[in-house]
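Q: Here's a chain of 89 amino acids. Please give me its 3D structure as tokens.
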Amino acid sequence: MTPDTVIHIGTEALRMVLILSLPMLMVALVIGVAISLFQAVTQIQEMTLTFVPKIIAVFGSMVLVAPWLTKTMVSFTRQLIESIPGLLR
């Protein structure tokens, strides 16, 4: 296994982590901005108001995208396992 191969596998793994985490991060960002706007307009500065809706929204988005997450992770893992014989040359 060459250093280039290791770098390629590591790059693909990091790319996969970013792709898989993107839906939850986007939901957290949108909810966070909406709550910040709400707090700025109403001047309510309650700390739990920021965390609880984000947690619920991220959990909901995880439930909604779970089939896609699973399919993508299984596909990446299958591809990685199938490439093992070629890596050992």
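Q: Can you summarize the key feature?
A: The radius of gyration is 19 Å.
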